[in-house]
Amino acid sequence: MRVPIIAGNWKMNKTPAEARALAATMKDRLQVIAGVERVLCPPFVDLVPVSEVIAGTGIGLGAQNLYPENAGAYTGEVSPLMVKELCQYVILGHSERRSYFGESDCFVNRKVRAALAHGLTPIVCVGENLEQNERGETDGFVSGQVRAVLADLGADGVLKIVLAYEPIWAIGTGRAATAEGANRVIGGVVRATLAAMYGRGVAERVRIQYGGSMAAANARELLAQPDIDGGLIGGASLKADDFVAIVQTAADLRTDA
């Protein structure tokens, strides 16, 4: 059974003091939830204070991005060497990085390779926008993204990543995909593409999250789907009670199974 993974993407929210307080509010409740990987992904400036709060708890820490070079004249960027001193995970290819900063699939692939080379677990995002969804282009577009961002990693590399299907039209809108619709894309497109690339055995072992307005109220319905292995949580991860509730729901469903 694939171990569920719930990751909170705090995006550009929380000062270092606020981040420390939020992590402290969640820490004790998250620590006692078994059977689920729990990951907090605050902004870069918050990584140190959050790492200090969650040290020794088993709660993972993730960055929201990295640049695919170890060092150099890349003003404003953060290298995998810097990230790995504090983090175990890194979010790559988020739709906001693609939309606002022009990141291509090829560039995301470079980042994935850099993360893996330094022992980080990439959480790699794919997903279509509203126009593509309404034109019936979801399957072809998402499959193409998966092929591009995971190109030439090899089975060993692919087994070290987490994928996140995040329909762009559902991010931060409160308009989540239906549970059945999300599961169809995750199982019938993302996992099917993995199987075509690296074999069914590999595909069945890779964890695939759903991201896009997952909240405490709809988490059970989404996480109960057979191909959804967790969530990449945005807004709800900034509310301690909601995020803990989502993690607890994932743990309860795993116990029930």
SSE diagram, text form:
Layout: E1 5-9, H1 16-31, E2 37-41, H2 47-54, E3 60-63, H3 80-84, E4 89-92, H4 95-101, H5 105-117, E5 121-126, H6 130-134, H7 138-149, H8 154-158, E6 162-165, H9 179-198, H10 200-203, E7 207-211, H11 219-223, E8 230-233, H12 240-256
Parallel strand pairs: 1-2, 1-8, 2-3, 3-4, 4-5, 5-6, 6-7, 7-8
Helix pairs in contact: 1-2, 1-12, 7-9
Supply the number of helical segments. Answer: 12
**Largest β sheet strand count, sense and barrel closure:** 8 strands, parallel, barrel
CATH architecture term: Alpha-Beta Barrel
CATH class: Alpha Beta
Rg, Cα atoms, Å: 17 Å
Count of domain modules? 1
Distance between the termini: 10 Å
- Ranges where pLDDT stays below 50 over 5 or more residues in a row are none
Shape: globular
Mean pLDDT: 96
**Widest sheet: strand ordering:** 1-2-3-4-5-6-7-8
Structural class: alpha/beta
Number of strands: 8
CATH superfamily: Aldolase class I
Beta percentage is 5-15%
Helix content: 40-55%
Could you state the order of secondary-structure elements as H and E? EHEHEHEHHEHHHEHHEHEH
CATH topology (fold) name:
TIM Barrel
Question: Tags for this entry?
Answer:
alpha/beta, 14% strand, 257 residues, 46% helix, TIM Barrel
Describe the overall structure.
It is globular and about 45 Å long. The chain is built from twelve helices and eight strands. The chain has an eight-stranded parallel barrel, surrounded by five helices. 46% of the residues lie in helices and 14% in strands. With 257 residues, the chain is an alpha/beta fold. The protein has a single domain (5-239), classed as TIM Barrel (Alpha-Beta Barrel). The model has no long low-confidence stretch (mean pLDDT 96). It has helices spanning 16-31, 47-54, 80-84, 95-101, 105-117, 130-134, 138-149, 154-158, 179-198, 200-203, 219-223, 240-256, and strands spanning 5-9, 37-41, 60-63, 89-92, 121-126, 162-165, 207-211, 230-233.
